[in-house]
Amino acid sequence: MAKTVKKDLVLSACVEINCCKLLVINNVSDLTLQISELKSLGKKIGFVPTMGALHIGHASLMKRSVRENDITVVSIFVNPRQFNNPEDLAKYPRTIETDIEFVEKTGVDIVFIPEEDDVYPVNFSVPEVDLGRLEVLMEGRMRPGHFDGVVQVLTRFFQLVQPDNAYFGLKDFQQVAVVRKMVEYLHLPVNIIACPIYRESSGLAFSSRNQRLTEAQKEEALFIYKSLLKAKELAKKMTPVQIAEIMKQDYSDSSMELEYFEIVDPVTLESLTDEWTPDAVACVVAYVGEVRLIDNMQLN
Ligand code: AMP
């Protein structure tokens, strides 16, 4: 069983004798104490930030971190500052008890589950990061303030956890680009490691939001994966703009509501029109009922 540890943390001793159990840490001061102890022992720290409602996609990041680092820290925090829609925040799945059991099974060492006041104390100074065009493309355009919230939470967590390596899923393709830009801009000493998208055998990308779907809606949501496969096939003979048009038509003929389908350059994330660039990525956001789903696929 995982236990919540308060002041007298024992992880560093456990690491030495290799008897590590999951530590559940709920506040910044305990985490700080623990990290400084680990750093003084020269431990390599891997970090996986999450918003909980954990699934196999998250586990793939955690397992990779466990393999590549001495210590893995997972955070579970539904960051209000990255939600531009209060209803979306209120409905975001929260399954903390099962999440802790889930994390324990992956071999993670520390799970950090802070309160909002602790993450953002009154004297929290909001980092200034120029994300350039990333702020106005795709997710930046559709969710104003979203990446600002992502930058705020990650600068705070990186400062607290001091990871050598931080793991992010390519499912949030633009987020990976934002995090890389943030790290470069602030000169943070952390490697950003992008991990592949994990999908159910049907092809549906694992997502915390899938918990809000009925079985019938999960079937419907498969349309997204199928549309990406179709785009990949069409990429052999059509231009990006032609494919995007076909996709818009396909979605309007379907039961799903399309927010955007864009074929983008993998580095700049600018939409491609008549010319292909290597490793172009199709990025899609669509709604099944009220649930907003995001996915992407490399096309060529
Ligand atoms: P979230 O809890 O949704 O903020 O996700 C935490 C991390 O897990 C992010 O880096 C996501 O990109 C990643 N992630 C979520 N779903 C998947 C998936 N299906 N495959 C791989 N990574 C994922």
Describe the structure.
The protein is α/β, with parallel strands linked by helices. The chain folds into two domains: 193 residues, HUPs (Rossmann fold, 3-Layer(aba) Sandwich); 91 residues, Pantoate-beta-alanine ligase, C-terminal domain (Pantoate--beta-alanine Ligase, Chain: A,domain 2). The chain is built from eleven helices and ten strands. The strands form two sheets. A seven-stranded parallel beta sheet has the order 1-2-5-4-3-6-7, with helices on both faces. Strands 8-9-10 form a three-stranded antiparallel beta sheet, with helices on one face. Helix 8 crosses helix 9. The N terminus is likely disordered.
Question: Helix and strand succession?
Answer: EHEHEHEHHEHHHEHEHHEEE
If you compute it from the alpha carbons, what radius of gyration comes out, rounded to the nearest whole angstrom? 20 Å
Distinct helical segment count: 11
User: In which range does the helix fraction lie?
Assistant: 40-55%
Strand order of the largest sheet: 1-2-5-4-3-6-7
Query: How would a crystallographer describe the biggest sheet?
Result: 7 strands, parallel
Outline: globular
- Total separate domains: 2
Which CATH class of the largest domain?
Alpha Beta
Residues in β-strands, percent: 15-25%
| Helical/strand content category | alpha/beta
Number of strands: 10
Mean pLDDT: 94
Bound heterogens, unique: adenosine monophosphate
Keywords, please?
300 residues, alpha/beta, Rossmann fold, Pantoate--beta-alanine Ligase, Chain: A,domain 2, 2 domains, seven-stranded parallel sheet, three-stranded antiparallel sheet, 11 helices, 40% helix, 18% strand
